[in-house]
């Protein structure tokens, strides 16, 4: 049965997201205000009866000097990805975006393909069985996700290259998640490895205090974030970005974004931001000082966020991106090593997919992105 697609209001969009267990934080209407440099549109899919059955936040980025746009649906749209007739969702979307001037469409189906338990990953690292997570037998594989990928390919969608590290997509293909549903907090903590449990106790004994901050504390977070950027050699976002994020997201829902700061003897040593949509909680940005690392403020702040996520009724605490490297000599290995200590699961998503509506302009964009 065919679906009708049209632009919807932010109110319709938000009401649909609220009716579901969760959706990506990049698919809520307020994310359009966070990404103020993009033009945004909320799309809705309707059954012939008039029932709204899917939504998508589209961000448009204009090409220099021409009125043609990259249309991007980060970690979306929010539709039935396991529908055997996926074209009834995607064909009207492509037609609409083409009419809006899009030359290419990029989307990130929020569909998990495989999961690996922390124990499986630790065994693979210890036994030096594989250099990559993808080469390790998963504990769970979603056959329907593989069918979805095949349907996309048959319809002309192109899967993004991940460069072998899982970071080729704009959003991470591999993430690390701690399941919270149907578990007690004691169960969750028992899942931590010995080092994590020891570090949490060390932080408590050292007097590390984790507090929930507000808008005025974003400057404290940002100072630590700049220190982290210098240490880890990445370009930091300006304070104004986080202020805009806070204002936009908390206006939509007071609980959408939270800030946590770990203090020791009155000095801020670590800070994190947390995002909440329904039953899904994300650790979004993290920052830490270069000194007093021995009092373990980062472990303390993570444990506080997990406890608060549990209190909010979350079913999953998402530590976001990891590389899929299991090579201890790889500079990205520390990321998975730290997160595996929480005893959760690594998850592989379908990744990002492109549909070139204008192949020449799409190829030019690819060339531009490869040279950045």
UniProtKB/TrEMBL annotation:
Molecular functions (GO terms): aminoacyltransferase activity
GO biological process: cell wall organization; peptidoglycan biosynthetic process; regulation of cell shape
Domain of life: Bacteria
InterPro entries per UniProt: Acyl_CoA_acyltransferase, FEMABX, PG_Glycine_Bridge_Synth
Pfam families registered for this protein in UniProt: FemAB
UniProt entry keywords in alphabetical sequence: Acyltransferase, Cell shape, Cell wall biogenesis/degradation, Peptidoglycan synthesis, Transferase
Family membership noted in the UniProt record: Belongs to the FemABX family.
Protein's name in the database: FemAB family protein
Source species of the chain: Kitasatospora setae (strain ATCC 33774 / DSM 43861 / JCM 3304 / KCC A-0304 / NBRC 14216 / KM-6054)
């Amino acid at each position: 049965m065919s679906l009708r697609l049209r632009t919807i209001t932010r109110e319709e969009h938000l009401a649909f997201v609220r009716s579901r267990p969760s959706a990506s934080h990049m698919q809520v209407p307020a994310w359009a205000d966070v990404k103020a440099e993009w033009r945004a549109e909320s799309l809705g899919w309707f059954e012939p009866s008039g029932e709204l059955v899917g939504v998508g936040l589209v961000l448009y980025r204009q090409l220099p000097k021409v009125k043609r746009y990259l249309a991007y649906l980060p970690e979306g749209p929010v539709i039935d990805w396991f529908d055997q007739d996926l074209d009834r969702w995607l064909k009207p979307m492509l037609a609409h975006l083409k009419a809006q001037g899009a030359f290419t469409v990029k989307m990130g189906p929020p569909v998990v393909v495989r999961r690996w338990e922390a124990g499986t990953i630790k065994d693979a690292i210890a036994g030096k069985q594989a250099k990559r997570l993808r080469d390790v037998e998963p504990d769970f594989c979603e056959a329907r996700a593989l069918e979805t990928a095949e349907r996309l390919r048959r319809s002309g969608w192109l899967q993004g290259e991940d460069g072998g590290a899982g970071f080729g997509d704009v959003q991470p293909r591999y993430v690390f998640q701690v399941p919270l549903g149907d578990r007690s907090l004691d169960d969750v903590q028992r899942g931590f490895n010995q080092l994590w449990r020891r570090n949490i106790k060390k932080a408590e004994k050292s007097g590390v205090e984790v507090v929930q901050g507000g808008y005025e504390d974003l400057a404290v977070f940002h100072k630590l974030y700049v220190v982290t950027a210098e240490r880890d050699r990445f370009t930091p976002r300006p304070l104004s970005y986080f202020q805009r994020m806070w204002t936009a997201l908390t206006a939509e829902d007071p609980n959408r974004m939270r800030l946590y700061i770990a203090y020791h003897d009155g000095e801020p040593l670590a800070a994190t931001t947390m995002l909440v949509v329904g039953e899904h909680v994300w650790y979004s940005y993290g920052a830490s000082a270069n000194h007093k690392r021995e009092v373990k403020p980062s472990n303390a702040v993570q444990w506080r966020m997990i406890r608060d996520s549990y209190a909010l009724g979350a079913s999953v605490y998402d530590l976001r991106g990891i590389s899929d490297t299991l090579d201890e000599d790889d500079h990205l290995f520390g990321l998975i090593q730290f997160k595996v200590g929480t005893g959760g699961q690594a998850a592989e998503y379908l990744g990002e997919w492109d549909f070139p509506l204008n192949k020449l302009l799409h190829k030019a964009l690819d060339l531009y992105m490869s040279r950045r």
